[in-house]
Amino acid sequence: MEIAFHMSLPCLSVRETRRFYANLGASFGRSTESWVDVNFYGHQITFIHAEKFNFSSPNYVFEGKILPAFHFGIILDRTTWQTILNTLVEQQLELVTETSFLTDQVGEHQSFFVKDPNDYMLEFKCFKNSNDIFSS
């Protein structure tokens, strides 16, 4: 069995959350009006309708770029990563950061961040060499 992660997060609108993730190519599992299971590239994220919440967290600097400390994301192959990036640009969604990291080093990857309708910051990564994901 391939191992997948599960994460449960509060959301402001199940309907808007479902629409956003559908545009990213996600499919859906069980759901009600108050929660939805999102199949996020083989991983399960459950979004549960909740009151207003605040995840204030400081940013951090990596290679001179200011990045959000509180975020989650997915590592994709280059083709899928580029397809999603193109889709978001076509939808005129604001990309927070789009850049390369660790150029010409172990772990070289491209990355971009985008906010979902709940104000969660999502990072999409693609590594130049997929064997470098956990290399140092």
Spell out the key features of this protein.
136 residues, alpha+beta, four-stranded mixed sheet, 2 helices, 17% helix, 42% strand
Characterise this structure.
With 136 residues, the chain is an alpha+beta fold. It has two helices and ten strands. The chain has helices at 14-23, 78-90, and strands spanning 6-11, 27-31, 35-40, 43-49, 59-62, 65-68, 72-75, 95-101, 109-115, 121-127. A four-stranded mixed beta sheet has the order 1-4-3-2, with helices on one face. A four-stranded mixed beta sheet has the order 7-10-9-8, covered by helices on one side. It has a two-stranded antiparallel sheet with strand order 5-6. Strand 5 and strand 6 form a beta hairpin. The longest helix is centred in the middle third of the chain and has 13 residues, at 78-90. It is globular. The two termini are 27 Å apart. 15% of the residues are buried.
